[in-house]
C-alpha cells in the first residue's frame, strides 16, 4: 500500500509552478467531441485526464497526448453507452451526457463518480435536457437521454451549478434557436469552456455574467483551448506558504480567481504580496482568527474550505467555517483533531480554536480536498505524518510531491 510520508516543520522557499485547472480540463475534453479536431494545451498531468482518455478511446475518438498538449479527433467516433465502470471513474463523466446529447441527440450513461462529499444530484442537468426537448429515462442508476431534435429554451437554474451550466452549454450549442441560462455559474472553468466552444464556432454571449445566451449553430469546426491556471491548486499551496513559507513564490496564477482566499488570509494578518501572475508569501506569527462561509464563485470556494482549516488552527482565537455547498465536507476534521487540533463540528459549521501546534500522526484521506488539508497540516506539524489512501489527492494535484520537495518539504511516497 502507498503511504505519503511527511516530516513537518520544514520551511518552504522557492517557486511552485501552478498547472492547468483540473476542473476546467475535465470539461474541455468532453466538449472537444462536439467538433472533429480540438487542441488543448496546459493540460494537467492527473489521473482524471487518463480516465477521460480511456473513455474517448472506447468511443473511438483519437486522443493524442504530448506532454501538456492534447489533440482530440472525433470524426469516426461512435456513440456508445458510457459503462457503469467508466461513469463512476470521475464526476466529470457527467459531461458526456451533454456532449453526446448535443452531438448525437442521444446519450446513455450511469450516475457519475466523484468525491463522497454529499449526495451530489444531477437533477438540474436532467431537467435542463428535458427543457431542450430531450426525454430522460432513469433505470436505477442508468440514464437514457434521447431527443428527435434539440430546441433552444429559457432555463433558470435554482442553484448556480457548475456542472449543470457546463452541461447545458454542451447540449445547446447545436440546438435549433436560442437558449438562455439564468443564474449560471460564474466559476472560471465555465468561461474556459465558453472560450473553447466559441473558438469552435459556437455563439455564446454573457461570459462571466449570470445570464448566458447560446444561439444554436448547424455545426462546429476545429478549435483550440488553453487550460486556465488551477485556482484551487494555487490556493492550497498559498495556504501552505502562510503556515511554512519564506519568500515562497506561487507562480502562473490569476489572482482574481482566488480573490476571496486572498481577502481572507489578509484578514488573518498573513504576509502575502500579490503581483500580476504570482504571489509571494511569508509565514508570520500572531495570525488572527476569521469566519468563512463557502459560496458559489466569486464567494469563498468550497474546494478550499478543507485546505484552509489547518491554517485556522494556528490563529490566536476562535475561527468558524460554514460549508453551504456540500453536506458532507468535514471528513478531514477527525484526523486534524487526532493531530491535536481543537475543532468542533456543529452541523454545517466547524469551530476552530488556536493557536495550537499540530503533531504528526497516521491519518487517512477520504476525499481529494480532505487529503489536501491533511498534507497542509502535515507540512506544518511537528514530527512525521503518514497519510494513507493518498490516491484521492494525487489525482487532483499534478506533480505534488515534486513541487513540494523542490521548495524544501520532506515528503515522499513509500510502499508499506
Ligand atoms: C464542480 O462540481 C467541481 N468538480 C467541484 O470540485 C466543485 O466543488 C463544484 O463544482 C463547485 O465549485 C468538477 O468540476 C469536476 P455543482 P459540480 O454542480 O459541478 C448541488 C473538487 O474538489 N447540485 O456546482 O458537481 C450539489 O449537490 C470538486 O475539485 C444539485 O443539487 O458542482 C452540490 O451541493 C469537488 N443538483 C452543489 O449543487 C444538480 O443537478 C454544487 O454542485 C447539480 C448540483
Blueprint (SSEs and pairs):
Elements: E1 2-7, E2 12-17, H1 22-31, E3 37-41, H2 47-58, E4 62-66, E5 69-73, H3 84-87, H4 95-104, E6 106-110, H5 123-131, E7 135-139, E8 142-146, E9 154-156, H6 162-172, E10 178-182, H7 188-199, E11 203-205, E12 211-215, E13 223-226, H8 231-244, E14 245-251, H9 259-267, E15 271-274, E16 278-282, E17 291-293, H10 305-312, E18 317-322, H11 333-338, E19 342-346, E20 349-354, E21 362-364, H12 368-380, E22 384-388, H13 391-394, H14 400-406, E23 410-415
Parallel strand pairs: 2-14, 3-13, 9-10, 17-18, 21-22
Antiparallel strand pairs: 1-22, 1-23, 3-5, 4-5, 6-8, 7-8, 10-12, 11-12, 14-16, 15-16, 18-20, 19-20
Bound molecules: ligand EPZ.
Could you walk me through the main structural features you see in this protein, from its secondary elements to its overall organization?
This protein is α+β, with helices and mostly antiparallel strands and 416 residues long. The chain has two domains: 205 residues, UDP-n-acetylglucosamine1-carboxyvinyl-transferase, Chain (Alpha-beta prism), CATH 3.65.10.10; 205 residues, Enolpyruvate transferase domain (UDP-n-acetylglucosamine1-carboxyvinyl-transferase, Chain). The protein is 31% helix and 27% strand. The protein contains 14 helices and 23 strands. Helix 1 packs parallel to helix 2 and helix 4 packs parallel to helix 6. The longest helix is centred in the middle third of the chain and has 14 residues. The protein is elongated. The N and C termini lie close together (5 Å). It binds ligand EPZ. Ligand EPZ binds next to helix 1, helix 5, helix 6 and helix 12.
